[in-house]
Specification:
Elements: E1 10-11, E2 25-32, H1 39-43, H2 48-56, H3 60-81, E3 90-92, E4 98-100, E5 106-112, E6 115-121, E7 125-131, H4 138-145, H5 148-152, H6 159-180, E8 201-204, E9 215-223, E10 226-232, E11 238-243
Parallel strand pairs: 1-11, 2-11
Antiparallel strand pairs: 2-6, 3-4, 5-6, 7-10, 8-9, 9-10
Helix pairs in contact: 2-3
The structure holds coenzyme A (COA).
């Protein structure tokens, strides 16, 4: 794969969902939270656990995003599974990564600002999107999480470029961590995700992490001011990007 293009999605009609991703392929779904969308429609697709989490959110924006993200996720997964969105069943891994209760299909979800993205594959996958924003103590945060080579990449000519490089590394690292299903369990400085490479690269998972997954493949790009990164436990040569109308 020479260049990933997460910013050029194909619209998919709800009646014609894509088949499972093939070998060497991952699917990425992207949609925008529509502030005017009818929240009860989205809420009607959620299960009791999701509705309870939605109820605990305090701001209208967070509620709207949660409803759109999880209703949209159910809708796209239902397309692959051939069931209704309300009938998609989840379980959590031992580390809390959401998984489908039945079958082999793998997925992951991410949201930032009014953007939502999900990844679907047949091996463990992770996705992270991050809107570029001001970060307090950016360098000290990076020191805690970035490898020496990643730290060196922060040697940028302007604060804008510094922010871009920070979020590029951050999103790639989060995508790998989400693929593995682990959070802040290990020293992330041991994980080097590669920077500035416009194609998928292989990443070695540190041996001390005792992960069942020893290698990941990660790719990233920018879509306007949003850093987008995907990771998969299997090599991929193709990323197919889809979207649908969030309100339908
Ligand atoms: C749980 C975690 C993975 C979420 O990441 P985030 O950037 O805050 O949020 P995102 O929008 O990208 O992802 C949230 C989604 O990830 C999924 N998720 C939750 N736990 C997960 C886990 N253990 N593994 C993978 N995915 C997980 C859920 O679908 C969640 O959606 P929800 O909150 O609406 O239910 C995060 O809190 C975490 O622990 N990240 C690792 C922290 C870290 O070391 N970062 C350093 C990077 S340099």
């Amino acid at each position: 794969m020479s260049q990933i293009a997460l910013d050029n999605p194909t619209y998919v009609d709800w009646q014609a969902p894509p088949r499972y991703p093939g070998e060497g392929e991952i699917h990425v779904w992207k949609w925008i939270v529509d502030a005017t969308s009818v929240e009860p429609t989205a809420l009607g697709r959620l299960d009791a656990v999701e509705r309870e989490r939605h109820a605990r959110l305090v701001t209208p924006n967070l509620k709207q995003r949660y409803a759109s993200a999880h209703a949209g996720l159910r809708r796209l997964l239902a397309g692959y599974l051939g069931c209704k969105p309300v009938d998609v069943e989840y379980r959590g891994s031992s580390t809390g990564k959401p998984l489908l209760r039945h079958g082999e299909l793998q997925f992951n979800l991410s949201h930032t600002a009014d953007c939502v993205a999900a990844i679907v594959g047949v091996s463990p996958v992770g996705i992270d999107i991050e809107q570029q924003r001001a970060v307090n103590n950016l360098r000290s945060l990076a020191t805690k999480h970035f490898s020496p080579a990643e730290m060196a990449s922060l040697d940028a000519p302007s604060s804008l470029e510094l922010g871009r490089r920070f979020f590029e590394v951050w999103s790639r690292k989060e995508a790998v961590l989400k693929c593995l299903g682990v959070g802040f369990r290990h020293p992330n400085v041991d994980l080097h995700v590669g920077v500035g490479v416009p194609r998928s690269v292989e990443v070695a998972i540190p041996v001390g992490w005792n992960s069942e997954i020893s290698r990941c493949w990660v790719a990233s790009c920018w879509s306007s001011d949003v850093a987008e990164a995907v990771a998969s436990a299997a090599p991929f040569q193709s990323i197919r990007v889809f979207t649908f109308a969030a309100t339908s």
